[in-house]
Structures are given as C-alpha cells and as structure tokens.
C-alpha cells in the first residue's frame, strides 16, 4: 500500500465522484480507477460502490478512511516539521469554527496567517461545535475554534468567554430593560427563536432556562445566526444569543444582558494524542497572541 494510493482513495471518498477526484489528484480517470482497483485487490475487499450518479463507501471503505487520513496527516506533519526548521510552512491548514467566535477575529487572523505563510492553503469550515470537535479528533480538521466543553481526545486551549444576551426587536417593551432574569414573568408566553438544537450553545441555554423555570415556546429553529437575528428583527420572537451575533449599530434590535450572567466559554481545540501540525500551531500561537494583546489594550496603562 502506497501513500499515493491512500491519497487517491481519500480523494474519491471525499469527492464521491471519480472524475472530480481524478482532477483533484491530477491523474487521468482511468489511472485513478486502476489505482483504486489495485488497492482493493491488495486489501481483498471492495472500497466503493459505484453507480452512474455517485460513488459511496462500502463498510471496508468506511473502516479504511480514518486510518488513511491519519497516515496522510502524519506524512504532512513530517514535511511541516522539516520545513519548520527552515522557518517555512507549507501544505494545507483545515480550520473549523462556530459561526460567532468573538475571542479572536478569525478573518483577520487567517488573512494575517496567509500573508505570513503564503505556501499554506487554508480551508475554513463552519458547523456546530460538537461536529467540529469530532472532526479534529478524527484528523479531518487541524484545529477548530468552538465553545463549551469538548471530548477527552482533544487538547482544549481557553481563549475567552462571551456573556449571553436577550435579543429583542427595538419596539418591544423589553428593549427598555437594563437587564433581565430568565425567571422574569415578562418572558413567559413569549415566542422564542432558537439556534440549532444540536449545538452546545443551545444545550447551555436550555439548561439555564430549565433551572430558572422558563419553558421557552420555541417557534423556529434557525441554523444560521445571521438569519436568526433577522427573524428577531422582524418580530418573530426573542432569542438568547452571544452579543457578537448582532451586528454593531443594528438599530432595529436591542440586546439586554441576562442576570445572573450567562457565559459561554470559547476555546481552540487540537488533537490530544499528537502534536498539532506546523500550520495549526502557528495559527494557535497567533490566536493566543491576539487574545493577549486585546487583554493588554483593554487593561490600559
């Protein structure tokens, strides 16, 4: 079994299409098909089910995929380690992030990273925190910026926290409140818009509401925070959110601090059983530096 075969196998597994996979690994489609057939012969089992529309993994293929990704990641780690001695990083950096991550300005950080390391290609994925954390543990992502607790297979690096707020339309009577408790009678019988129910953020909110005796009447579940804020703006309901989800200067929405204060912890996660890749470590170092600089600036002279 050769690394080139594993690279080709992973390409087909991720693209679910031989033509697209062949273009990705820069070989002809017939050559790719022959390489996969040779790998299947060596392993003694079919790796893919092929039909006219798409390619799907067999049970054997699903079993091989994580190991193949780990093998390729290990090779990349070796290249990165040698390149790091020369002060040069190259390869790919796969980053995951939840939709609002106020502890670090990720677009700015990634842009600065690209300027500093132009030979590294960056791919950014947004998803729920749990999904991103599992992807790091399975070597599908190099690093992720998430909230809440994470599984034991990962190393968690704290970066900050958000105080959650209640978002209400500007014309709502609650918009005039200086703060509000989740046990406030004014929140009873109100419609709420919830963020994706499989998220760590929503789980934290649900736990806090239950403890306060608030049974939210959830009328909509929105998986995109930008659209969720728009629902609130149009008066569809109230929402409990991180403050960064509401654009600065949004005139038709007010945010009310919740008391007792509710916080969500923000962190970066990297694999716990092996060192981060060179690019991932460089991005993590930049994130920690940005957090430290922000803390120093806010502290003043």
H/E series:
HHHEEHEHEHEEEEEHEHEEEH
Number of helices: 9
Instruction: Determine the fraction of residues in helical runs and give it as a percent range.
Output: 40-55%
Q: From the structure provided, what is the oligomeric state, counting identical versus distinct chains?
A: single chain
CATH class of the largest domain equals Alpha Beta
Q: Taking Cα atoms only, what radius of gyration do you get, to the nearest Å?
A: 23 Å
Tell me the strand percentage band: 15-25%
Description:
The chain has 301 residues and is α/β, with parallel strands linked by helices. The chain folds into three domains: 1-88, Arc Repressor Mutant, subunit A (Orthogonal Bundle), CATH 1.10.10; 89-161 and 263-296, D-Maltodextrin-Binding Protein, domain 2 (3-Layer(aba) Sandwich), CATH 3.40.190.10; 165-261, D-Maltodextrin-Binding Protein, domain 2 (3-Layer(aba) Sandwich). It contains nine helices and 13 strands. The chain has helices at 3-15, 18-25, 29-43, 59-85, 106-116, 129-137, 200-212, 225-233, 278-299, and strands at residues 48-50, 55-57, 91-97, 120-126, 143-147, 154-163, 165-169, 180-181, 191-195, 217-222, 239-241, 253-259, 263-271. The strands form four sheets. Strands 4-3-5-13-6 form a five-stranded mixed sheet, with helices on both faces. The protein has a four-stranded mixed sheet with strand order 8-12-7-11, covered by helices on one side. α5 packs across α9 (278-299). The model has no long low-confidence stretch (mean pLDDT 88).
Which descriptors would you attach to this protein?
3 domains, five-stranded mixed beta sheet, 9 helices, four-stranded mixed beta sheet, single chain, Arc Repressor Mutant, subunit A, D-Maltodextrin-Binding Protein, domain 2, 301 residues, 42% helix
